[in-house]
Amino acid sequence: MFGIFMESFVILKLYTGLKLLFLLSALAWGYLLVTEKNKSIRTLLVYAPVIVVALFLFPVSRKGFVAIGLDGETYYRILWTIPFGIIFVYGICRLFEQHRRIGLLAGTVLTIVCGSYVYKGAYISKAENLYHIPDTVVEICDLIGPEDAKSRVSAVMPEELIHFVRQYDASINMPYGREMLVNAWDYYNAVYEAMEKPRVVDMEELLKATREEYCQYIVMSKERETNQDPEKCGLLLLEEIDGYLIYEDPVTVQIVNEWQNYYEDDEG
Question: Which parts pass through the membrane (predicted)?
Fold first, then answer.
């Protein structure tokens, strides 16, 4: 039981960082514990977080979580129910309400010193369009996306694009998503292994994997090394967009079209 408790404590530590932002939430929680009179708010922002943390660390809770069939690797998601940010912001607002000058000064200084400039983040960039995703992705998806709103296509994308494709066009299926980018999850996917793992892509291995997944399109960076020219392997180069080569696989396209025609005739 102690071992399970320590594992849960480590998860809590990794989740919160036990650093400045967590400290601010803890200080705001303490302030609300002493000053907040509204029972509903006290229940939500003062009592509930403590109960959630206590249950999270309680070994029997984790055993029960796994026993009902849930993945133990996702146990940390219970902590999502604790509104750390709301606790801090509300606490600062309450301090400002009761002590204008001190609250304003304390809130400003703590936010600046303990926080970070969000626009310096690795995943933050200037918006290129209304979708807030790279124009490159929009152009690629518009090129290969199905004309019929009821249809779907399947495409292999470089790992730096897969986050955006699913946001822009849900009609484009991909054989793997961001789960392949998290090493701790240790997922296996034959297409990903052939597409991303080797320094030089073996086109025969890649086509074998993509055709088993019925991928009609293969998108590759122009800088990606391959042991054979993709066009000599039977792929059709549709277009180059911002350094990405968009290939169509006639073999898979024919198979998919035959399926669609079969089902359309069957329904007719």
Answer: 12-32, 44-62, 74-93, 102-119
For the segment 143-170, what is each residue's pLDDT rounded down to a tens digit?
Answer: 999 887 778 899 999 999 998 998 898 8
219 - beta bridge partners?
A: 246
| pLDDT digit string, tens, across residues 61-90 | 888 887 887 777 788 888 899 988 899 889
What whole-number distance in Å separates Cα of residue 183 and Cα of residue 215?
24
The two counts, helices (H) then strands (E), for the chain are 12, 7
Beta-sheet strand order (sheet of 236-241): 172-173, 153-156, 217-221, 244-248, 236-241
Q: Which one-letter DSSP state was computed for residue 254?
A: H
List of residues 6+ apart from 255 with CB closer than 8 A: 214
**Per-residue exposure over 54-77, b if at least 16 CB sit within 10 Å of its own CB, e if not:** eebbeeebbeebeeeeeeeeebee
Q: Where are the domains of the chain?
A: 2-120, 135-267
Nearest to 31 by CA among 98, 76, 110: 98
Where b means 16+ CB within 10 Å and e means fewer, 195-232 reads bbeeeebebebbbebbeebbbbbbbbeeeeeeeeebee
